[in-house]
Amino acid sequence: MTERARDVTARRHQGQPLETRRRSAAQRWGCRGLLALLGVVGVACGAAVADRGRRLGEAVQDYNESLRWGRHERAAAYLPDAERPAFLGGKRAAADGLQVHDLELRGVQTAADGRSAVVRVLLTFSRLGDPRLESHLVDQRWRWQDLAGWQLIGRSRVVEQPAASRGDPATLY
């Protein structure tokens, strides 16, 4: 400590008992330690949220690619257990008349706590025997489950388009 710093410290504590000076120094260190600990906890929480974000990206990609290539059992793994049988029955029926050409991620909105997200996907498909391509914009609602990871809890079409008489592709996504 330089002589000038000692003078400033002495003037700041002038007239205070020695115990008060020691206690305030200990309190200042305690505050610094607490701030350092909070910083470490904040970084750890930020890392957990970042890991959830990475895992969301992997889940969304795996689910949508599984749908595209007809791996419905794999896609169903991202749904709550109670919804899987109905999902698999509907997908098999819908897939018989449809060909998925592309699934494009259009946007992700994650909640501030990192435990839920809405993912917008553009689905491009055609009906077998029909050369025209159709597109549906779909919002997928995902929720983080501590033991299960990311689960798809809802799907809805953003832009309503009339369904053709040969089957509604809404059951595909």
| Run of helices and strands | HHHHEEEE
User: How many domains?
Assistant: 1
Strands side by side in the biggest sheet:
1-2-3-4
CATH topology descriptor: Nuclear Transport Factor 2, Chain: A
Outline the structure in words.
The protein is an alpha+beta fold and 173 residues long. It has a single domain (36-172), classed as Nuclear Transport Factor 2, Chain: A, CATH 3.10.450.50. The chain has helices spanning 3-12, 18-68, 72-76, 84-95; strands at 98-110, 116-127, 134-145, 149-157. The protein has a four-stranded antiparallel β-sheet with strand order 1-2-3-4. The relative contact order is 0.11.
Brief write-up:
This protein is α+β, with helices and mostly antiparallel strands and 173 residues long. It contains four helices and four strands. It has a four-stranded antiparallel β-sheet with strand order 1-2-3-4.
Considering the chains and any ligands shown, give keywords for the structure.
173 residues; Nuclear Transport Factor 2, Chain: A; four-stranded antiparallel β-sheet; single chain; 4 helices
Topology:
Blueprint lengths: L2 H10 L5 H51 L3 H5 L7 H12 L2 E13 L5 E12 L6 E12 L3 E9 L16
